[in-house]
Amino acid sequence: MTRFPGVDYLRIDSLFSEQELLVRETARRFVDERVLPLIRDCFRDARFPKELIPEMASLGFLGANLEGYGCAGMSNVEYGLIMQELERGDSGLRSFVSVQGALVMYPILTFGSEEQKRHWLPRLQSGAAIGCFGLTEPGFGSNPAGMLTRAKREGGDWVLSGEKTWITNGSVADVAVVWARAEDGIRGFLVERGTPGFSASEIHGKLSMRASVTSSLKLDDCRVPESATLPGAKGLKSALSCLTQARYGIGWGVIGAAMDCYEAARAYSLSRKQFDQRPIASHQLVQAKLADMITEITKAQLLALQVGKLKDQGQADAAHVSMLKRNNVAMALECARESRDLLGANGIMDEYPIMRHMCNLETVKTYEGTDHIHALVIGERVTGIAAYK
Fold this sequence. Notes:
16% strand, four-stranded mixed sheet, alpha+beta, Butyryl-CoA Dehydrogenase, subunit A, domain 3, Butyryl-CoA Dehydrogenase, subunit A, domain 2, 3 domains, 10 helices, 10 strands, Butyryl-Coa Dehydrogenase, subunit A, domain 1, four-stranded antiparallel sheet
């Protein structure tokens, strides 16, 4: 097994604390030893490696940057480094951890009752329970305010009706955080597996995120008690605040995918010989591509680190995270494409990780806020005009 050497052109490691470097090394070793030996077959077979869940939980990866209830209480920079290494393994693995922590555990911790926190958070942190986040609908992705899922009071209960789609973990989840429109606005609900009227079906035929479970949820007069509501979740802003947490992890995670593509291309260019039997790394055009990639990776690292520091200081907001997510995903996707080009025909073979990352990143560019939506969020910040309304 070859240890990943890392990508650090500008000595960015000197900006991390010993604890942050230790966290990254732990995640890096886990990916090298446990993820990489099996992820190619998982992608081929469209199978999520659920056998890794207990190990990730024992390492503190689930809800890593949350406090209490068994969570590791790591800093946001430490959490970001974990996301980076996991996505170096595969976007599907990082997506699972992002959803579990940022989209399920975070809303329960932030908006839930004490009873909900005590019941769910230790189980989710330990991997004994899996969660999913039900916001996107078949007709409403970038415009969640248009959601059609309804919540209606009947006696002391709530009756939920509607459909959610593109839900990571949906068909394997023990609990779904479902957002629905009630008379007094959008509310959040915890819907447990097995609740009458609630069903989930896996989406098949994906050419991206194949090592991830993606599902549709159906709520057909699904009755839940008042105790299933998230009492602190009032309005769409509550749901969007959860997405901000997850987008932050994406902004770090895709750096790992870009690093993996870059390192594969760099190593290949040194070993591949053409024409006069010199390595293609000696050619000017090849060196220009490698220079472009490592420059963009370095800029993305600095952007992620600064947003992480701001987040740890309580000063990062959604617009900061939009820049992080938009820039770094575009960077990673371009690195994947350039790396594939440098490998020529070999670039499409799954002996190398590049095409797998490229396919995954096409999805990452779209979910949890498309590139276009994040451009408009940034545009609103710099002009004061909301162009998407």
